Amino acid sequence: MRVKYIFLPPNCEPEFDLRKSWGAYSPFFSVADYTPPPEGCEVTQVNILQRHGARYPTLGAALNIVSAVSKLQSVDAYTHPSMQFLSSFVYTLGVNDLVPSGALQSYEAGARVFERYANLVDADNIPFVRASSGTRVVDSANNWTAGFSAASHHVYTPPLSVILSEEGNDTLENHMCPNAGSSDVQAAEWLAVYAPAITARLNSWAPGAGLIDVETHALISLCAFHTAASASAAAPAAAPAPDPAPLSPFCALFTPADFAGFDYAADLDKYYSTGYGGALGRVQGVGFANELLARLTRSAVRDRTQTNATLDADPATFPLDRTVYADFSHDNAMVAIFGALGLFRQPRPLSTAGPDARRTWRTHEMVPFSGRMVVEKLACDGGEYVRILVNDALQPLEFCAADGVGVGLCELSAFVDSQSYARSNGGGDWEKCFSVQ
């Protein structure tokens, strides 16, 4: 019997968008229209934290994908027409690196920042750009600066000023907490709920293939990876946005319910690894949170976690006088940073039995490829404020929102006070990263 998952109350189901059902492999999209600052406020500083663009699968994912495709291509015949393409399909995807459409995502993001915040840029105020040292992250940062430069008609070309080694202290990567757990248990529990019926169907369409559930999950991811790798990246930032890339034929093997199950698997993965569900998840975002506070207050970084004290103490590698900052990172690190800041809190832990339709923890809205968080500092009548947008959606900041000023606005001093978890270096959690278990 096929399991049915209820995600929203009856008659409230939104129109299904396949490209927004790929979890962390979804392409960037604006979750909401950008909301300009309230009347009487102007943006004075922008801090951007952005994920790299679309990439090829990582090695572990690629091994499962290749295994699944090989099994499907080993059978004598297919019983369903949607599998016929496999007779001549050749798998050619690379591993880890940015794909052309991912480069374009970053390029367009840089152009959009210049168009939105051009008033903050002049010869003395060029964006300060950092990146974690992973190749796809560095490439994304360089594509972002190229897009920013092109949008300014090459008047302003920000350099990539700092590359933080992923072998050392790095606030843009989550690798410094040896005792951090994983989401393996929760992932396995949900896989056992959503995947068996799909695996059985695929095996009936390819008799003798012998797919297992983890390979079914990998094949769903191939819909996203193959689509992204096949997309054109020829359009310049100034041209109209190109039509979405044609979907991979692998996408036709799955139903909307299948993709919904896959999408929720990503939610569980992020929540129980570097999110709130991991005992040492959000502490891995504390270093960046403290760097953000330093920029917002133009004061020295105070942190004893992931920061590189030498770099952060040097005005050349951590200036405090810029109007635009752009940092390039990975999805897992960004999720930890969201948690450290207090974003996307859930009233209850995510369940491995099925999703809660009321949750705001939706990975495809938080960290799609080229996803970004923008922290704006504003000068308003009577004071300085902060607001945060994630993929253009204004965050409520219920932990410090100011009354009578505007939705999502928080007084700067109140925002700093609200960050007690980061300011206390994780309230003891950082030490647990290294304590004997």
UniProtKB/TrEMBL annotation:
GO terms for molecular function: acid phosphatase activity; inositol hexakisphosphate 3-phosphatase activity. It is found in: Secreted. It comes from Mycena rosella (Pink bonnet). Gene3D superfamilies: Phosphoglycerate mutase-like. The active site is at H52, D331. GO terms for cellular component: extracellular region. CDD domains: HP_HAP_like (cd07061). This is Phytase A. It catalyses: 1D-myo-inositol hexakisphosphate + H2O = 1D-myo-inositol 1,2,4,5,6-pentakisphosphate + phosphate; 1D-myo-inositol 1,2,5,6-tetrakisphosphate + H2O = 1D-myo-inositol 1,2,6-trisphosphate + phosphate; 1D-myo-inositol 1,2,4,5,6-pentakisphosphate + H2O = 1D-myo-inositol 1,2,5,6-tetrakisphosphate + phosphate; 1D-myo-inositol 1,2,6-trisphosphate + H2O = 1D-myo-inositol 1,2-bisphosphate + phosphate. Keywords: Disulfide bond, Glycoprotein, Hydrolase, Secreted.
